[in-house]
């Protein structure tokens, strides 16, 4: 085989490998108005109940956005001259605690031909024993709006956000105005996950995930605030005390959440 033949063969292999590596969407809608995709990571697919739950939600999201794209084209066809909208949602597992509580990140990408694409992040806490979504309430003695637990969480979240802004040299936006949306309420404090831990099967605390615009300008991107479990120790139930322990793994703060 000549050098050129070898190079061509290697090139073809690389192209094939790249194509083979592209994941196939688990659900998709593609028409002249929109191309929208749902991806589930492999660990979610391995859990039939969790996969079905995520896929059901994801398909509703596809249908909703497809209907909105069709209505938008009908009303403002000039905004579709360069093609349809582009949407993508990815479900990925962030942590599994005591082999029961699964934290899932739900990342959305939306391009509707505005000034720039947008992104969003939300979370799911899945109870494998009950096969359903739950809140973090079982881990705390009380979670009333404005109560001591939620106030302690908000204080710790804002401290973490300020530290992150200092690290990014964006301290000028570490203001009450930007943090006013972080309220002492489970529904308003931010999308939460159980952070992984250096101690197997445990969680090192809570991570709160904020999309662009939530706690800073679009250019600053997403933020993740970490609240160590020790800060919340006075408010833990027996189950909370059972699942928390250890420290946040080195590098977790630097990895995509």
Break the fold down into its secondary structure elements and pairings:
Elements: H1 3-21, E1 27-30, E2 34-40, H2 42-45, H3 48-75, E3 85-97, E4 101-111, E5 118-127, E6 132-133, H4 148-167, H5 176-179, E7 191-195, E8 205-210, E9 223-228, H6 229-232, H7 238-243
Parallel strand pairs: 2-3
Antiparallel strand pairs: 1-2, 3-4, 4-5, 5-6, 7-8, 8-9
Describe this structure in words.
This protein is of the alpha+beta class and 257 residues long. It has seven helices and nine strands, in the order H-E-E-H-H-E-E-E-E-H-H-E-E-E-H-H. The strands form two sheets. A six-stranded mixed β-sheet has the order 1-2-3-4-5-6. A hairpin with a 3-residue loop joins strand 3 (85-97) and strand 4 (101-111). The longest helix is centred in the first third of the chain and has 28 residues, at 48-75. The radius of gyration is 21 Å and the shape is globular.
Number of strands: 9
By DSSP (H or I, 4+ residues per run), the number of helices equals 7
Oligomer: single chain
Q: Estimate the strand proportion.
A: 15-25%
Overall radius of gyration: 21 Å
Structural class: alpha+beta
Spatial shape: globular
Biggest sheet: strands, sense, closure? Answer: 6 strands, mixed
Helix share, percent: 25-40%
Alpha-carbon distance between the termini?
47 Å
Q: Average pLDDT, to the nearest integer?
A: 92
SSE order in H/E notation? HEEHHEEEEHHEEEHH
Please mark out the parts with pLDDT under 50 across 5 or more consecutive residues, or reply none: 6-10, 14-19
Strand arrangement in the largest pleated sheet: 1-2-3-4-5-6
């Amino acid at each position: 085989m000549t050098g050129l033949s070898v190079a061509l063969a290697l090139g073809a292999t690389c192209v094939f490998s790249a194509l083979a590596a592209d994941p196939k969407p688990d659900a998709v809608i593609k028409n002249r108005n929109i191309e929208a995709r749902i991806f589930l990571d492999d660990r979610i697919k391995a859990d039939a109940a969790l996969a079905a739950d995520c896929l059901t939600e994801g398909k509703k999201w596809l249908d909703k956005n497809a209907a909105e794209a069709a209505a938008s084209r009908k009303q403002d066809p000039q905004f579709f001259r360069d093609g349809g909208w582009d949407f993508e949602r990815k479900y990925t597992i962030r942590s599994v605690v005591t082999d029961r509580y699964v934290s899932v990140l739900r990342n959305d990408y939306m391009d509707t031909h505005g000034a720039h694409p947008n992104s969003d992040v939300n979370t799911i806490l899945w109870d494998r024993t009950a096969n359903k979504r739950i809140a973090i309430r079982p881990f705390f003695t009380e979670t009333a709006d404005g109560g001591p637990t939620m106030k302690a969480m908000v204080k710790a979240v804002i401290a973490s956000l300020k530290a992150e802004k200092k690290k990014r040299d964006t301290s000028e936006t570490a203001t009450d105005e930007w943090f006013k949306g972080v309220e002492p309420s489970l529904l308003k404090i931010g999308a939460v996950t159980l952070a992984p831990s250096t101690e197997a099967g445990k969680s090192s605390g809570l991570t709160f995930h904020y999309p662009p615009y939530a706690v800073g300008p679009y250019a600053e991107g997403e933020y993740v605030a970490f609240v160590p479990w020790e800060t919340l120790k006075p408010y833990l139930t027996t189950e909370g005390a059972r699942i928390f322990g250890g420290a946040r793994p080195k590098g977790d703060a630097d990895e995509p959440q």
